[in-house]
Each structure stands twice: as structure tokens, then as C-alpha cells.
Amino acid sequence: MSTASLYQPWRLNSTLTLANRVVMAPLTRSQAGPGLMPTEAMAAYYARRADAGLIISEATLIRADGQGYPDTPGLYTAEQVAGWQEVTRRVHQAGGTIVAQLWHTGRASHEYFHGQTPVAPSAIGLEGTLPRMRGLAYPVPRALETAEIAQLVADYAQAAANAREAGFDGVEIHGANGYLIDQFLHHASNRREDAYGGSPENMARFALEVVDAVAARIGAERVGIRLSPGAYFNMEPDTRDRAVFDHLLAELELRGLAYVHGGIFDDSLRFDYLDGTISEYLRRHYRGTLIASGSYTAESAAAAIDAGRFELVAIGRPFIANPDYVSRVREGLPLVDYVDSMLASLV
Ligand SMILES: Cc1cc2nc3c(=O)[nH]c(=O)nc-3n(C[C@H](O)[C@H](O)[C@H](O)COP(=O)(O)O)c2cc1C
Asked: What is the CATH number of the domain that holds 65?
């Protein structure tokens, strides 16, 4: 089957055009250095993947209390910005385009990392233990005071400005996978009774305030957002969530963003309350550029792009195993299979 459509350029807007349709998905690697700074090894790792049409960085912290995994990089200190400057310089030198994924884990954080009780929309903890932390149990988070939310929004905007200073071509707001923004969007984690909970408009408010503040700082054409309308990770599904995402997507459509990106590990998974898969649901509710992700092969992605189901595909695990993923699939060369042990080192 032909994968030719993957190698066509894609114009996101008048500011950003991508060389091809293959996006390197955001992939947390937990290999940042002291001070949560990007390292030389990270610069080399990203530069090796510069033939992706777009690289989305691993999730990167907007502030210290957002941390939920060891050694994840930040974008809130001058040293971190300087470290990222080297990463973006190397990616650009190799012809690539790269955006920073802006992250706060909310209730998936732990005081182990920053000495504070994690903040979340509501004081509802996750079951189980933190990943990569040898059995450390998730705490019960503290519900954000209404008055604290404006500072959080400002911190996203500042991290976006820092990303531009660090040479990133834009940012992806991480609104997916059960982290802070997603926690506002689902009933299982948002029981607020103020302006940020209780109705679709209120539950979508935090996400939209972050989008608007970030867009005001760096321009909407440099801003994408990743969303998980179907709860699948760190989140219990609730059929009422659908109305929240219906409202959110209608609002996002008015904002001229670079793209919307679906967050899911397997995009063949169907959600009853979305009447289909994540990408099918997003396509019905959002007319701008759509990135799909989740267990795609070059062949299945090209067929879906040909059928108009989305414009760009984000490839995750295969990109860890194959730094030269794009040239391999283009030339029809075999791919190395991903295995979890590859996470131990940056190759
Ligand atoms: C090791 C690993 C780390 C990940 N880190 C992130 C992340 O930082 N941000 C994010 O939005 N998704 C993250 N994901 C999800 C991926 O972006 C992607 O959606 C998922 O792997 C499905 O795509 P794939 O089947 O091509 O791997 C991660 C996935 C893996 C396997």
C-alpha cells in the first residue's frame, strides 16, 4: 500500500508549514539533568529525528509543582531555557520544526518532587502508585482555590513565552491523558462548585483561559492543544464528559490554533459516549488541522489521511525505536520493533 501522502507538506497557517505529515509524538523520557535541564544527549536525540514534519517535545513542566515523574525537563528557569536553546538550535540546523509540550500533572504529582501537596480541580486522588517511583502512592491532592487559578494560567503563558525564547517554533498545550487541564474537563476529577465546575461551560473554562493566555503571548498560529475526550488513562469515563468536549471544541474552532491533537494509545478504541474513536469524534467537532495518534503504522495513517479522517499522524513508540522513522518508511525499509527496555537510554 502506498504511503505517499505522508510525505506531502502541510501548511498549518501562514506562519508554519511542515515538510511532511509525520509528527514525532510527545514522549516522556525522564532523562533531564540536574535542575530539570535538557542535556546534550537530549539535543542529539531530538536532532536525530529532525526529518519528522513536526517534533513535539516530551511533556515539559510549566512550574515545579507540576512534576509527577522523575527527571522530566522544565521551562520555568533561565537555565532550562538555555538548555532548550541548544536542543532547538540542533533540530533547526538539521532542518526540523519543534514545539514544546507544556505540562502540569495536577493530581498525578507528588510532594516528593517539590515539597508541596499537589493541586487539582478537586481533592480526589488517583488510585495506585506513581510510575517509575518504586511504589510511591498517589496522594490526595488539594483543590485549587478559585483565586489561585489566574496564577496557574499566567504560568502557562510565561512557559509559552519561555519556549519561544528557547527557540521553539510554538507550543502544544498538554490537555490530555488525565493531567491538570484534562482533570478540569472530566466529571470524575472535577466536582467544583465555582466558575470552573458544574457545567460544560465552566468545566471547559480553565482550558480556554490557558489557550487564550498562551495565544495572547505567542500568537494563536503557534499554539496547538492535545485532548483526550475519551478517558483512558489516569481517569474514569463519564458519559456527561461529552458535552464538555462538545463545548470546548466549538470554542477552540473560533481561535485559529495551529492544530488539535488526539491523545490516546490506540485510536481504534471506540468510546460509546463519543459515538466512535477519538479521531472520529474530533473530526466531527473540529474543522481545523487534526493530528491523530495511537498505534498507527505508516500504512494505516496514510490510508486515513487519504480518506480525510485527519491531516497529520503522531508516531510515538516507533520513533523511539527508529530515529530515522520517516526515511525508513519512505524507502520501505523494515522498522525495529519498540520494546520498553529502550526507554533506559536516549538513542
Ligand atoms: C514512553 C512514552 C512516553 C510518553 N510520553 C508522553 C508525553 O510526554 N506526553 C503525551 O502527550 N503523551 C505521551 N505519550 C503518549 C504518546 O505521545 C502516544 O500518544 C502514544 O505512545 C501512542 O502512539 P504510538 O502507538 O505511536 O506509540 C507517551 C508514550 C510513551 C510510550
From this structure: 3.20.20.70
Statement: the pTM of the whole predicted model exceeds 0.90: yes
Ligand 1 neighbours by CB, cut-off 6 Å: 25-28, 58-59, 101, 174, 176-177, 226, 263, 265, 293-295, 315-318, 343
The mean pLDDT of 121-147, rounded to a whole number, is 95
Q: For ligand 1, pick from 55, 295, 317 the residue to mutate: most ligand atoms within 8 Å of CB.
A: 317
% of the chain with per-residue pLDDT over 70? 100
Whether 329 is in a domain gets the answer: no
Q: Which residues are catalytic?
A: 179
Per residue in 331-342, pLDDT tens?
A: 999 999 999 999
Helix (H), strand (E) at residue 280: helix 278-285
239 in a structural domain: yes
Q: Rounded to the nearest whole angstrom, what is the distance from the C-alpha of residue 294 to the centroid of ligand 1? A: 8
Q: Where in the chain does DSSP place strands (E)?
A: 10-11, 17-18, 22-24, 54-61, 98-103, 119-120, 142-143, 170-175, 223-227, 259-262, 290-293, 312-315
> Total structural domains in the chain?
1
Number of the ligand 1 atom closest to the C-alpha atom of 177: 11
